[in-house]
Fold these 3 entries.
Entry 1:
Amino acid sequence: QNVTQRSGNAWAHPQSTTAGLDLKYGLSSNITVDATINPDFGQVEADPAVLNLSAFEQFFSERRPFFMEGTGIFDYRVQCDDIDTGCTGLFYSRRIGRSPQLLGRYGDDGSPTSTTILGAGKVSGRLGNGLSVGLLEAVTGEESGVDRQAIEPRTNYLVARARQELNGGSSDVGAMFTSVHRGLDDLSDPFLRRTAYTGGLDMRHRFGSGNYELAASLTGSVVQGTAEAIARTQMDGVHNFQRPDAYRFDPNRTRLTGDAQRISISKFGGGITRFQSVYQRFSPDFEINDLGFLARADEQMFRNWFQLAFNRPNRFQQRASHNFNAWAHWTADGMPTVLGGNYNGHMQLQNFWWLHAGGNMNGLGRVYDDRASRGGPAVRVSRGMNAWFGIEGDTRKRIAPTLFFGAGRGDDGHGHDWYVEPSVRFRVASRFSGSLGARWSEVTNDNQWRANFGDPLSDTTHHTFARLDQQTLSLTARLNYTFTPDLTLQVYAQPFVSTGEYSNWRELDDPRASNYADRYRSFTQQGDPGGFRFMQFRSNTVLRWEYMPGSTLYLVWSQGRGRQDEDGYQFDFGRDQRELFGAHPDNTVLLKVSYWMNP
């Protein structure tokens, strides 16, 4: 591995070499043991570049083969906000091998950016009586920063899952348990939780000739640590107990115990109608982010989805669907935070092209954003709306173009945005295929959170917002070439540039005022609100050779370039691409060989 880092006024390129071992063994025709020692997980596509300015953690899909295999057995759904975007739950495997959590406090430019997985193993499969079982355990090593101070402690992760099918597969009941144990020292225990446990029961029952489904789950969580660590948990973006309209913060607590409930009824077949109604609730103390994923606690949500599905071809179309959605969110105490609706429709024409269109409305009624001020008071949300349209070519053809665009308005007309997203998929020959895509967006957000100044537990804190004018361009390329059925090459590359300029710096005045302008007053204590320029390039090249049936060699080259500064607020394609590709790269070259033994 080659890592580029500063060494005085020059650049150093330290090299490192590691070795690992993967093992897969079939205990029976249905039960498999997977084990790995110091895994590299290198032969996967890089994550897309993202600039996250929200109050919530960014979710990234799992891409590492070890964790993706048999992932359905470990599925336990907790948070499902949108039927189109999937669910998150008690096991988010990206927590294992994560970026060190104390990197920004005790690390420097030469510190590790990921945590070494010393070893991991799992047993998964399905027994003949319909019982699915999964057991996973992983140990990650301690990573050190400046003066050998731990930036991520040695940690043990455990996941256990069981699900029993009933009634010939039309019903099932299940249970799941997870635990996390960290080996903390005196400098890390004020910041990280020492132990975390989650557990839950879930059930599903199909009825009405298998067209209808009732599902429910009950989940609990316990996290423990020092008073300082639990205080930080109470004040993070998932909980925000320090909010002046929450009054939940207790600096002496060393444990948080929470619960969650979810129930849904759905229709997935029969006739032309489909629907799903979901209610889910998270108590304020619910915390699963040591090994799961939860964007926020202290929330109730009720969502309805209704679809008209026309799957029989006629003179105008091959098939079509029309979706109608409505959703409402509240805090656990009942304060309304979201009320909105959506329509989206999709039609495949007789020539096999697709037409897509939709629109959203949010901020209906009197609703408040209790996360907007990052621990401050809830802010009244103004009505907003957006619409989008897309056209998609016939994917059976050698070249299939796609074009999406959309626009929206919000903040009582003070904010607006639009984007255009063209792409093309091509199959030049049976050996060569790929896709090229771009996305350009311009966003004006009139109430983007900027910073808080002062003691977060006092009533003198300044919660500031500003107008943000942001331009973003991303390009994505995927290429696949097959030399022979056993030798393939895959290339992924994405440059990403986003610039933003802040203006009209304000602080909260009367955050719940019905009149938009009355919610803020001018803020002049810190001068110019500034801006940003964020640039990133990620690429991954994988050569795969199956030299024997079931035995594979991978040669992987990953490259990353990045730059972030507070100059050049306005987007300039020529300047930005020169500086992005002029930045020093981080290169990783990896060789992995697997050998399949079938005794």
Entry 2:
Amino acid sequence: MKRQPTPGAATALALVLPVLAALTPLVVGCHRQAPPAAGDAASAAADASGNVAASRFTAEANAAVAGALPIADAADFEEARRGLVATKPDLAIRTAGGRALWRPRDYAFVDGEAPASVNPSLWRQAKLNGIHGLFQVADGIYQVRGYDLSNLSLIRGRSGWIVVDPLTAKETAAAALALARKHLGNEPIVAVIFTHSHIDHFGGIGAVLEDPTTDPARLRVVAPKGFIEEATSENVLAGVAMGRRASFMYGSGLARSERGHVDTGLGKGPATGSIDILEPTDLIDTTPQELELDGVRFQFQYAPASEAPAEMAFFLPDLKAYCGAEIVSHVLHNLYTLRGAKVRDALKWSGYIDEAIELFSTNLDVVFASHHWPTFGNERVVAYLKQQRDAYKYLHDQTLRLANDGLGPQEIAEELTMPSTLASVFANRDYYGTVRHNAKAVYQAYFGWFDGNPANLNPLPPEQSGMLYVEAMGGAEQVLRRAQEAYDRGEYRWTATLVDHLVFAAPDNEAAHELLARCYDQLGYQAESGPWRDVYLTGAYELRHGTQGAAMDPAAISQLLRHMPAERFFDAMAAHLIGPKADGKTLTLNFVFTDLGQTHVLTIENAVLHHHKRTVADPSATATVTLTRDFLVRLSTGQAGLREMIFSNDLAVEGSRLDVLSFFSLLDRPD
């Protein structure tokens, strides 16, 4: 007779939920009601969220930016509007449950001249990213832009459409396809291209699979080598922390307003809808790799370890068009992303752009990409590619030069500036990545966290050092007085440093919270980078209103999790083992997945969790958990509850249930 699982054992399996739910930062966002946008009724001092007005110093700093850049240059706007087929100003995309997912009108306030509370260069970028609709890029190439953080591209084949990067969520991708269908016809979707392993470029594949013209059995799916592995694992081990940080980076809890979230620089923001993934039928692993899809000739460029661990671009020789994926964009991209990720290789990144120039530039009329608008004309295209290439190479080379001169990462970030020929190019501006944090990323890639200063080898943690700093400066009142004086002089970076010590030393000091929040307001208003602005303003919001957290509907990623290898679940468990609690314990368990035909043996010794795939169960194990991966996904995402745990045929425990409970009790549940 089958042994029924104990509720405790089954419930314990749900301990993996925090990791699984944070599998990718782009789908993690705060779903609480955002504070209302600031309107005419808001006072001059503070808006509905508590954000104060731009100070005189902020207004002057932003005016200086406007005076230093050709803000009125219309060339990008002409290219962003070129080829417009149709737009839908009243677009409102909702989830099946009715939650508003995507509304361009939320950004209708981005109009006219930049207010004092927004860097005018970022304001210009926000205007460009607000241009949305269906566009013809070239003969047979179309894009739907402004329906998500990324673009959905369509290439006309002999018998149907080739879809490139079907957005973040099924809902936004379905709306984009509906717009294209309305104006381009109902030919079948015959192929899909995933340019890289970030979720805003594959998560909406469910809309393609549900399209009535799609034959899933005949659909060709092209992706770079390692796509599935990277797409399902990039953030699984550190996903909880990354999810929390992503809510800061994307300003997911901020009002869409002149004193709130304006733009990410890369686009408006990621959609948090239903996510899926699909196994590739064709893998790209060399350059140039030629492939014909529905009569269209492709020359693929394999570009791993650039903007994503698994990435590729492609050239369409008959159409004289290059899709740069996310290797090229109309921003200085991230070598290090503020949500957290492995540092990207600036030298390889630059090298791939140089390779594209060498291989394709003589026969190239247009460059389009996974974000932003295309660039047209051979002369303009080649200049754009060279400027993008040289931005990453300059960051790499000059960071190492300054490091070899003895400077540490913070000093390099302060010292390094782009040459005038690159700094004056809007496509190289700090809208997403920044020169300052990218320089630190290059330093980190070569030298790690230690800057060589012995004082920084083993510093005190923030709470302890904060208390000692405050004591050394004469107490909280003295720190506040000096910080206020610095704030009144417009020295916001120094103000933030001073008050940060006080907030760590006295977390209940409301005056310190408000002063630091006002300081973050000004730093956010001055930021050219969308993520920097959102990080500062989210910090200000939480200082005033408390931690907003980061949450999502776990069921939204259930389809993605069904493609995750079983090994990745156990990697997540290992990263959540409470080392001190496991000290001195030894344990061996079998996990048998009936739907996968796999057996995994888990062992704990030396406070470390190991797992190995085996052909047979370990006879020395004290318990065997038999289940399906599908049931583990449903359990982890809350789609299976207590009744299913007890009565499901998809889970059973044989042997010591106490050992199973003991195992799961050793796993942390991060907040």
Entry 3:
Amino acid sequence: MPRPARFRIAALDELFRQLRFAPRETRMRQMNAAEALIADIDPQRTYPADFIIFRITGYRPDRADDSPLLVGEALIGDLVVLVQRLSEGLALPADYAGRRAMAVEEVARRLSVSSKTLQRYRRRGLVCHYVVFPGSATEGGSDDDRAAPAEATAEPASESSCEIAPESPSGGRLACFDDAVQRFVQRHRAALGRAASFTRIERSVEERIIDAARALRAAEGLSLNEAALRLAREHGRAHETIRRLLRRHDRRGERAIFAEHGPLTERDARLIHRADRRGVSVRELADHFGKTPATIRRALCRRRADLLLELDIGAVELPTFSLVDAEAVILASPAVTRQLDSLLPREDALALIEQARAARQEGGDEEREAALIAGYNLLKRRARAGLEALPAWPGSAALDRIETDLRWATRLKRRLVSLALPAAVRCIEQFLHRPLVTQPADRIAPLLRRAVEVVSATIETLDPSQGGRLDRRSTYAMNRALAGPGSAPAGEEAGSFTKRAAARHEPGAIRLDDVFFGLTPWEELLELRRDLAARISELEDPPAEELMRLHYGLTSTPPLTRAAMAERLGLSPSAVGRLLHRGHRALLSLARAARR
């Protein structure tokens, strides 16, 4: 029995599982709604899953804040699968709703394409139904005949997952209604014209292509993809056609031209992730490993998910999280969305101390601290929940939302540390009985780093609902740290260094290694490298610079996902991805040039 078509999007796979045993009228209504929706989907856009479910079922969830975004191109193919799978067992007549059904073989002849090409058209929006033609064995069967199809799987679909099953398990035959074919022709007229003019490659031409590919490999060391691209131009064929021809030869031939890499291993995934962070494009990686770009992206997403799952993301469960619309209210607070770059000096110890000493508690500080702590813990909580819900092969949009939440949480942590440092510095000076700036240079930096560590650890357990104030808790923790073992410099008795003569330092003489970096365990993984961030103003590509700043939160506002930037700037997510990649590569070039 032919294998039923499979879903690529987990949300639609789950929807089908819920609908497969629904009453006949419900299945027909939602089958028709899914078919109507296909005409409204733009392959280049993304759509919230909750919106798609609402269009099909009429049900709108109460909250759609975390609704995943579905890529239009994949969505069209899965909606076609949903229509087909829902039509099984409905015993649709060949003149259903006044339409005329054509068997898929007739559709292929009418469009002058092969059955394989027709399979690909289904993923692009050609809608098929299982229909009972006059005179078939199932004509007049029971309306309640709803034989359960084989279970669908949400694993990444291979080409074979698009195969047309001519007959359903309940006896219907796969067909296209005339109006569905007409809509598809109107939408893809240019592509259909090219397909109709396609001719098979003759055996003699195929042999010449293979010989030419062998010569290119030997003379220039071209990859399979590069050789296929060049030969496609020379022979007036599609790049993918030549690439498939060469791959088929290597699988069957006695002497393979291009060595097959085999399935990607965990080590390959690590190399792919490292190369991606170093600016290597997906296309270059695909050529190197002899894989398709889609395979490389899946491996990259899987590696990103594995690294995120290794993190220990703890969060304090605050009472406010259980309130209605807590997430929307907490994450809209001005303290959480504005002035996130308002920090004490990062790398100048004397300037940091001077500003910390000058800091004064202002009205509203308690509310601001509570809002920051709530936002920090809520973002960690949401990221952790997103990780727990990831499928085995996660999509890049879901990972991007999780990573963006963690970047945002990092900025809130930095803001909290900056607000609490003045209390820690005052505590140190009380312990020393003198201003911190009068200490020897080799003592100031370690004391400041110790203060940052203590404040950072305090923030991780702070619960404002229990009456804890950030400055008081930080002062208490700093006093304990200074009184404990190891507070004195190495080789000296505790307290002896407080008796040294006061030192004088020139402004800017004592440098720090960015005290606000490394406050969260995911920074090394998710943040833009510090040497690259320092050069972002040198980019000569304004769109790429703007997107880099927005994505990594190098502004006073929270970082944005690719989808959010696309919506804000009127671009597609893929265009945003290309601009980010372009900006990253340019920054890497600037950093390399500076090291020469």
